[in-house]
């Protein structure tokens, strides 16, 4: 692995420390400090402390190590930089500005305003050079792990044109969050030596000193995960930071570098305290701080030598990019098919054969939609080499087996053993999707969608087409009882903006759901699948002239069919509709509408006249008995529908 | 701290290893193994492997250390035992059965059946002796941390009558979950030496060997949190387990004991593999395993010497309980007021003065409901000493400051600095509530309710009156942008069964919300509070004869009032209703109903004719501008309502 990584090390726009005078380093660092403080002051809102403390490590990283071309922020083989401590967004905007990304001073002056390119937290897709949306703590670190994994997997497939690092700056909050454990453990296990994390160790949280709530030995902790660790005792020491990053790049393990900093560095009276965290310094204190630093630039000013230094670094980045373009051209000349595949997957275009693959899934006997989904995946794998993913330790149960998993040092496989880390899995998938070149999926039981919900929300906010395979989708789970029986979960996913929630009823609908999931390139999909066997439905079952319309999804469609049959015996003209995606359900205006779903009725009651569901927790017992216990039998539902129809008719 | 802990150490029903013959130990362990295997076989569903591997540590703990009285499972000063690896429920039921808890053989035979006392995962309130609901991994460990903290805080208040340990058995899944980091870090920081965790280190997860997904050095990791660690290399070695627990009890730090076990121990062909995890052995393999063990008892049998040994241990537990009763009587005689307070708080009865305290909160000027909530808390603290809690590092921002926090070794304060650990906070609160003697609250921003959601669900499932203070409740959060702006969150909480969701509009409603939260003793409450200032409303604003009814909650009520005023100018008879709890909203049948909430419309559209909300992510910018951007101004809403009314009237 170190061999391929060295591609990027040697190709990096590395500036020997002698190239840039130490005074320019210092001025560049102060520029970042005061750009951030000026932004926060102009907005009268934001977090000046983190940028002022972390500016030296950020400058050292960006000026001496980060391989990037500000003119081509989408260059596939660039190093990735993640500001996991997203509240320090002003630091990132300052970096993007001085290095010549498309972020002019006018945008810095509009920090945190409606419609600006400088929102309060970095937002992917909003600002050139922002690799991911951060702010919800711990997720940036974990997305960085996903980016690093995607790089290793891409390297295993396209070694000639892939070799870059992923860097992250994390804060105390990131490290206290549970997801940092999942990220650290996973990255250590997979030996992601291309990942380098700098910890802004400023000893301060919003409520006060870190010591109020945490006494972790973070270096020992990351060492226990199998990471290389470094400590920089003076966060203003550019050479020490540089040396630590250099050693980290040489080490085959992921690296964790603790950099001791002072929050709000240099601002008298607030530096080193939580007062510097989340409030503007105020005009007077900002002026005084600038005086102490001997800072004579106008507000938002960038000194000429800093501009020149950044331009030189950007120039070397452009050279590295041009060099890579040459490597790609050579690769393409020698391997036109592989290069076309690379281009296709990076454009998120589906290959030929997807429809045929899905059509090949047999729909010949009753089976669970999770099993049908595994059949879809098995059919898709040969035609979609970019389709990779795994499970939070439920690959067999959820129908997401994909062969042997990737291991430390061998990233050629497509399966990922995420371990019992649902939240980590989802954030890693986000990172992989953001990296590009892959279509990714991850699975767990639907009830544990709660564990990964904050990352699923970010999938939607970042418009990433991550596919969540969520099985065991109702109380029919049975014997595992209410802790494992989703009730509110389908609805809870439907109400997150931008999430496509699909609940198929049989093999044909499962294949269609996979097609819809793969066709979507601008947002996540949740596939909601059954544990229990379901009959194959008659595809010609729709009845547009019905006066009673029963709408159901997934496992309840065949129940709806049975209920409809009973009502037809009563003489009603009944139709059954099974919208894979409820938002696409067009209610028949003239019909009396009844919904059946083994979950909460909220969300249905605005669409139908009678919503049959379950607004309480489930029960332990065999699945069929549990369904019966909660009224999900043909007789019980039929009785409720008949009673409703009679009362509606005034009978 | 060690001094008070020693109360329970000396008072424990400790059986010297010479008291119980080694053969009886072995038979008792095999009894637990085969009771579990028999249960799983009878149900044809469940997890035999964990109980068969972990039976020795469970037996050693329960027979030699756990201070409990099976006849009094609610004894306040009992040791707590948490089976965090809840899928091993059959082990817990076996323990409860042989030690004489109210769990007869007939219930073991009904394992995993509807209505049995032996559901698939342990469920609090369902089975005597089950301390908490487990199954969602990692949460049992974290609830154990909460129980241990509650014990220390109770000890600081009632040292004469409080001194017990909390024990937990955790599996690999618990330790991979992120929440285990939050739990471990928090417990280490607070020096919870009364907490002893045994790790069932069987090296197997559902999908295969632990090495597929994890290479953590768990002992080093917990040492990095400040824990005492022990390793038992043979999980069948009762004396080694005993010695490790004994050393753990003597150590002032929380203890983590790695016990190397073999999943499905002794079952030929499946032991040591994931096949033993989640499926019955099958009748033939079970019979063969019993033969290999020389096990001649009938199914569900308990040998006579094991029964006798358990009865003797239970007898010593009853003696310990009687001794404690004596200590309590002496305490009560000397401190009748304190004893009455103890009884009152353990009965979850509110003290006198709560209503008066809440009435004292001034409602004299516009302010945020988070600020009003802090005023309520400040008024409540003097009259409710049992009211304790804290924040996931947002005590100041969320209005939940409660003075200095508890620290390692000094647990007399009422504030808890949970750190940036939302999920851990909620599970710890569950553990504290389950322990008894306290009313607990925890706070974060509403958008981060997603991080703690799995534990909030368990609060509801276990009917624990945990109070969640969730602030910054809409896009009015403003500059922090969409990552920090809740949109779907209020509705996502409303749909969890059993959660009381209250969104007050001003000081009076905030005080009423606190009254409702405290009055509830059988389930959690979420208080949804604003970041921004809100006007004080006219309490006599209701208009029961309205033909247009505007229903709004929280921050949108004053907007609703302004809209109503505009409509009155048009000649409509308008009323505004602000249901604190939407489930208590009784729509006026005759009126045209309009809802206004700055969140998703799902859930409202079944209740009203026009639901005004936001079904997309928010935007970064100053709060007022963001509200305007998304249509939450008097003019914009008025225009939508007028248009709806006109079209409804056919104009």
Q: Can you put this structure into words, describing what you see?
A:
The structure is a homodimer of 651-residue chains. Chain A has 651 residues and is an alpha/beta fold. Chain A folds into three domains: 321 residues, Thiamin diphosphate (ThDP)-binding fold, Pyr/PP domains (Rossmann fold), CATH 3.40.50.970; 175 residues, Thiamin diphosphate (ThDP)-binding fold, Pyr/PP domains (Rossmann fold), CATH 3.40.50; 101 residues, 3-Layer(aba) Sandwich (Rossmann fold). Chain A is 42% helix and 12% strand. In chain A, α8 crosses α17, α17 runs parallel beside α18 and α21 crosses α23. Chain A starts with a helix and ends with a helix. The interface between A and B is large, with 106 and 106 residues.
